[in-house]
Amino acid sequence: MPSDIDIAQKAKMQRISKLAAEKLGIAEDHLEPYGHYKAKVSLDYVDSLKDKPDGKLILVTAISPTPAGEGKTTTTVGLGDALNHIGKKAMICLREPSLGPVFGMKGGAAGGGYAQVVPMEDINLHFTGDFSAIGLANNLLAAMLDNHIHHGNELGVDVRRIAWKRVMDMNDRALRDIVVSLGGPGNGYPREDGFDIVVASEVMAIFCLANSLEDLKNRLGNIVVAYTRDQKPIYARDLNAHGAMTVLLRDALAPNLVQTLENSPAFIHGGPFANIAHGCNSVIATKTALKLADYVVTEAGFGADLGAEKFVDIKCRKSGLRPAVTVIVATVRAMKYHGGADLKTITQENLAALDKGLVNLERHVDNVQRVYGIPCVVSINHFTSDTAAEVDMLKARMAKLGVKVVLATHWADGGKGAAELAKMVVEMCEKKSSLSFVYEETDSLWDKVNKIAKKVYRAAEVTADAKVRNQIKKLQEDGYGHYPVCVAKTQYSFSTDAQLRGAPENHVINIREVRLAAGAEFVVMVCGDIMTMPGLPKVPSANKIDLVDGKVVGLF
Questions:
Q1: Catalytic site residue 133?
Q2: What is the pLDDT of residues 436-456, one digit of tens each?
Q3: Is residue 274 flagged as an active site residue?
């Protein structure tokens, strides 16, 4: 089997103007091409669609991720192709990959095998420059804040209470905690500072939740960057920074149109991480796709405990979007890993490990069906090492929950390998569903994080030291209590301990830090040892990425 990048480089892509016209009815005048195979769709055209009826929204999520891999993005792409394969009009909405994991942990993030979005190299490497624009807007605000302090500090910023960090789209642990403005009076006032990765930035969250340029500008102005000595907030609009930030983001806010290997249209736009941010592509892209297609397949980052919860409680709550059905992606070998099997043995039949590991899938199914109120189907990315006995056990366990299981082979066979899944999804879309939020908007911030921890993670309690509790109390008193909560925690477990596989119960969720995202309109609760600026692993993916005879190699 050729590598993902080999397959992508041999793709027969349509010119994006032709695909837009023939598949979506978008005239060339409404496109801003970035070469022949990717383009932005103008915001004026997006606005012109507002009175058109919406298609059905399909959410793809997964079990808790493992080193074995699950293939959530691959399934999202494969299902979109499969829906078109069976004669439906479908689009795909994905997040843009961050360069952090591209060069860090896992290489590219554009699907895999014969279920990919292309041009794969462009998508993974800079793409249309959206992340650069987001980073620049973020860092312009940081520079304007330090500049204001340097030139007299008319707003009375307390340099000990600066909340705004700089960002870059790369993993670099050395930048987590730094000191800036060294070198004398001409360089400003020395203070402690630090960097986050772009995908953890509030600007990224705002970008993905904004409905228009006007909404974007208003939200940017609401960013709280610092506090005065008497703890009054200083906003980005107080620095008059939000206008220039909007200018930097103006072109980026238009959704990016690309295609799959099978020439299905796809929007790839925005990219907050789900373990440290809210993990969904932009609201603008999703809403636009729903006007252009009868079925829209999108994904929420990582497992259904993180990505799907934030998709529901943040994106759906804020935007009015409502998924008709959820696809939960899993693999037999990943569930054996959750059951305690060693990574080296997961391709061997092991019914005992599978029996034990299925609790992870069962927990996610229960959350999706009972807690979020969305009908679901389980899609198994099928491997040749999966035995009949293992598949039978999986189907029997899901049958007890009233959930159907589909074996899909889109990685190897493209859209036709997920045709059965597509037919099932279409059938389920016709049934009524009633989305449920994990908590009410009127709940206190403390009650919200407790409901997430106990309903979704099955924790026994939530803890926080006195400083953090006081911060949460202060945010509540300052009028932010109606905001949703965005939990930042490890994606590998229902707990905050990445090593706890399966479906741990009665564990403790400790909140070690609280961050207000007033522009994005949520409160981030940082739990466990999760980092908002990741580090590179001992052997980063960058080691094998290279340019050979003019071709990119090693990129997934």
A1: no
A2: 999 999 999 999 999 999 999
A3: yes
